[in-house]
Amino acid sequence: MDRSFDDLIEEAGAVDVSGWDFSWLDGRATEERPPWGYQRLMGERIARATMSLDIQTGGGEVLAGVPQRAAGAMVATESWPPNIGRAQENLRSKGVVVVADDDRPPLPFADDTFDLVTSRHPVSTHWAEIARVLTPGGTYFSQQVGPDSGHEISDFFLGPQPWGETGRESESARAAAEAAGLVVTDLRSAELTMEFFDVGAMVYVLRKVVWFVPGFTVAGYRDRLQALHERIRAEGSFRARSRRFLIEARKPPLG
């Protein structure tokens, strides 16, 4: 049955958006995954680690889905209170210690503590702090959101935006890592398709991924949501492009 606009936005405006689990979108939206398989590669590195740290873990969903364990302690940080509680629930059985951190330097750890630091889609990457807490020879491994990712969404709701230099370019990450004294050993990029099949799916994403339309509320953007609803009904979906890059960097060993 073709659900009404009001029904769709009311449902999506009320659903819980804490954590970083997007299963609510099953059958309502899709996003291509990068070809490298971040979670699998992350698990391979955790299996070889002694002390691991996952920065900005969200609700811990990605780390919880990794079957491997580090030989020693595993730690994760998160700043948003609803996510902290979710991460503690998701990671308790894995023995991961979740530390509340405001995502600003300094990290609450001593120098040379972790031989592996990971992060999936960090809001920001504080390279000097990562280099500080890594042991000599340790590795930083991260999948990050690339430049102008999903700009079609922002353009639709906010009007044409200036695109170009965003600070999220993969080469900018390389330069920042090297400036912090790390050696980049892998850097890959991918451009992927996002597709939304109803307006409720878009409401859910905009409530959860807040940087697409800063300050988004259903009431504040009701007219644009109505226009999106009509567009999806006419065309079958709304498409956008997402960009991701994978970066791995190593702290040089002593000597």
TrEMBL record:
GO aspect biological process, one term: methylation
Phylogenetic classification of the source organism: Bacteria, Bacillati, Actinomycetota, Actinomycetes, Pseudonocardiales
A GO MF label: S-adenosylmethionine-dependent methyltransferase activity
PANTHER family: METHYLTRANSFERASE, METHYLTRANSFERASE TYPE 11 DOMAIN-CONTAINING PROTEIN
SUPFAM superfamilies, alphabetized: S-adenosyl-L-methionine-dependent methyltransferases (SSF53335)
InterPro entries xrefs: 23S_rRNA_MeTrnsfrase_RlmA, Methyltransf_11, SAM-dependent_MTases_sf
The protein's name: Methyltransferase family protein
Pfam families associated with the record: Methyltransf_11 (PF08241)
Keywords: Methyltransferase, Transferase
Start and end residues of each Methyltransferase type domain: 53-141
Taxonomy, superkingdom: Bacteria
